[in-house]
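#lab-general

N.A. 3:47 PM
ok so I finally got the sequence cleaned up, no stray characters, all 141 residues accounted for. can someone with queue access submit it? mine expired

B.Y. 3:52 PM
send it over

N.A. 3:53 PM
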Amino acid sequence: MTITLEQARTIVASALAHGTENDMAPLCVAVLDAGGYLVAFEREDGVANRRFDVAHGKAYGAISVGISSRKLGEAAVDRPHFVNGLIGAMDGKLVPVPGGVLVTNSNGSVIGAVGCSGDTSDNDEAAVVAGIEAAGLTAKI
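B.Y. 4:20 PM
back already:
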């Protein structure tokens, strides 16, 4: 099973709404399916042009390695050679900072990942979690 387009659209809209409600900087949100393919993406006006790459890299790293981008960031401190190797193996498409979260269904199966960029990494992650929960799914941080 993988994340649906309807769920992805709910996640994006709710994450962006969370950002607006909490006076965050403009955000962009990328939702990937279980295979790491882009399902939905939106960027708010005023987001820097490379933020897509950051949001996608947070989500892509999470779905590819099976842990949140927060945990990848922690691994980068504890095991820098390993994370540098991952970054190289993934052609630089891994961004090991908070804001990339795995999405699980009611059975606990990973069905996708969401990445957000635009504000602080912690705020990006909070927006992602709000979006995932609004879709009736669970965020695995």
